[in-house]
Amino acid sequence: MQSISYRLLLAAALLGTATACSPTVDMRGNQPLPEHLAEIKPGRYTKSDVVALIGTPATVGPFSDDHWYYISSKFETFAFLKPEEIERQVVVIDFDKSGTVTNLRKLSLADGESVDMAAGETPTAGKELSVLEQLLGNVGKFNSSSNDAPKGP
After folding, report:
1. Looking at per-residue confidence, does 75 or 10 come out higher?
2. pTM of the prediction?
3. What sections of 21-142 are H helices per DSSP?
4. Residue 125, SS3?
5. Is 3.30.450 the CATH classification of the domain at 22-112?
6. What's the sign of the alpha-carbon dihedral 33, 34, 38, 43?
7. What are the pLDDT digits (tens) for 126-145?
8. Quick check: 124 pLDDT over 80?
């Protein structure tokens, strides 16, 4: 009897270990359904038609709102390791000035490019203050008048 419970305990431990090693998969973003994307025809659909069909975009172009991006990713995580992106889909919908679809493109993880950060600093307006100027900078700027002082009980 004791050997059966020992075997059950061992089987449960092995099962627990095996399930702990299986990856966790996360879907992130807005992945429009393929049948909805197939309905979007250049020259026939407008921005409002696209929103009604697949929703609002994840982002728009940085210089005009004539390029809409629907971005989705699938990440896989093993135990405590860093999540790894295993799949990406970017749907780019281009519009003309009147808001009519001109083009629809699909990009994948393979189409992505690694961009290195530029070294250096971005200059800012203003001047550098010394520690003493920072400490003494507000001295004399605030006056407490008798009208602003709290009244006693």
Report:
1. 75
2. 0.62
3. 34-39, 47-54, 131-136
4. coil
5. no
6. positive
7. 777 788 887 787 777 766 66
8. no
Give me the amino acid identity at 70: Y
Phi, psi values for residue 39, rounded to 5°: -75, -25
- For residue 153, is pLDDT > 70? no
More confident of the two residues 123 and 36: 36
CB 58 within 8 A of CB 29: yes
State the sign of the Cα–Cα–Cα–Cα dihedral 34, 38, 39, 44: positive
DSSP state of 46: B
Mean pLDDT of 32-56: 94
State the CB neighbour count (10 A cutoff) for residue 76: 14
C-alpha span between 137 and 68 (Å, rounded): 47
Strand partners, 26: 75
Tokens representing 115 are 């961009």
3-state secondary structure of 119: coil
| Sequence ranges of the domains in the chain | 22-112
What integer pLDDT is reported at residue 127 of this predicted model?
A: 76
Structure-token pair, residue 92: 């780019």
Length of the chain: 153
